[in-house]
Amino acid sequence: MNALPPVPQPNITQNDTLLPPWQSWFQQLLNSLPFLFNGSIQIDSGVATTIASISTTAGNGGRYELAAWIDSGDAAGYTAFATLMVEGSSTASARLVNPTGGNGAHLTITLSGQNVQITQTSGSSQTVNFSYLRIG
Predict the structure, then answer these.
(1) Domain segments of the chain: what residues?
(2) More confident residue, 135 or 44
(3) What are phi and psi of 45, to 5 degrees?
(4) Rounded to whole angstroms, how far apart are CA atoms 105 and 39?
(5) Residue 95, SS3?
(6) Per residue in 87-131, pLDDT tens?
(7) Any idea what DSSP says for residue 23?
(8) I want to staple 69 with a disulfide (CB 3.0 to 4.6 A). Which of 55, 79, 106, 122 is the partner?
(9) pLDDT-above-90 percentage for the chain
(10) Smallest Cα–Cα separation from 55: which of 1, 94, 2?
């Protein structure tokens, strides 16, 4: 984990808008957060595609929030979310919490071993956007 940047002295305007160096400090803070990742990947229809491998070694336990979506205008069909719980002992394991409740009709998040996978079933290859965040 990156060290957090030193906290600058307050510099707040009359309307409580943060000014430099606070803006820079917040950007450095965001950049130093562990396990924050997002991106996009081209996925063929019906193919489970790994977007991340979650480490289950000792000390890496925690809660991960996962989200995936296709920019289609159909949120019910092309969005998915899941919570992943990782137990971080020397015999660590991972499991999806409510793995089907957050899946859309054509987009699912699943776990295969330690691999987080996305499957889309639109009938053609699609760009799928995703993000995951380790909360604690």
Answers:
(1) 1-33, 35-134
(2) 44
(3) -60, 130
(4) 22
(5) strand
(6) 766 555 677 776 566 788 899 988 888 788 999 999 999 999 999
(7) H
(8) 79
(9) 21
(10) 94
Identify the three-state secondary structure at position 136.
coil
- Phi and psi angles of residue 26, each rounded to the nearest 5 degrees, phi first: -65, -40
Residue with tokens 């956007």: 129
Q: Are 66 and 135 in contact (CB under 8 A)?
A: no
pLDDT higher than threshold 70 for residue 61: yes
Q: Is the pLDDT of residue 57 over 60?
A: yes
Q: Which residues of 79-115 are buried (b: 16+ CB within 10 A; e: fewer)?
A: bbbbbbebebeeebebebeebeebbbebbbbbbeeee
Q: Which residue has the tokens 């606070």?
A: 22
- Least Cα distance to 48 among 112, 98, 131 occurs for 112
* Amino acid letter, residue 55: S
Element (H, E) at 125: none
